[in-house]
Design a protein that fits this description.
It is built from three helices and ten strands; from the N terminus they run E-H-E-H-E-E-E-H-E-E-E-E-E. By secondary structure, it is an alpha/beta fold.
Length: 156
Amino acid sequence: MKLLVLSDSHGSSGSILTALNKTSPDALIFLGDGLRDIRSVLEHRGDFPAFVVRGNCDLGAQEPAERLIELQGTRLFICHGHTYGVKSGTSEARAAAERTGAQVLLYGHTHRPECRRVGDLWVLNPGSCDRSGTASAGIVSLESGGILCYNIRINE
């Protein structure tokens, strides 16, 4: 199962569409700060499951600030990250993910792509899928009980 992970579109629904067309995912995870963008895209391209959380710029949104989802036996903790102070490090977000038994932590907010393993936990930030020349996304591949995470450039 291929998951496209996006965050921080900030008005750029076109970048979301580009990422979808480039990756053909089985499901989409959106980590906040652009809920209007993702809603607009899903109205036209809602042919796959989508899991969404709100970010600090999604004022008045009803979506949760964080979620634990399970796909193909893998637990993923998803959040925007601002409530865990991720601009200063991921230790609080990692601790929250580990408390839930998650194998993958997905967060945004910093606009900086990151993908690494910390112990048994995959930590992935897709960066920002805004209109900038450095628009990026994350991919989580769940195959045969294994997990693979990596970042991609959207506009290349």
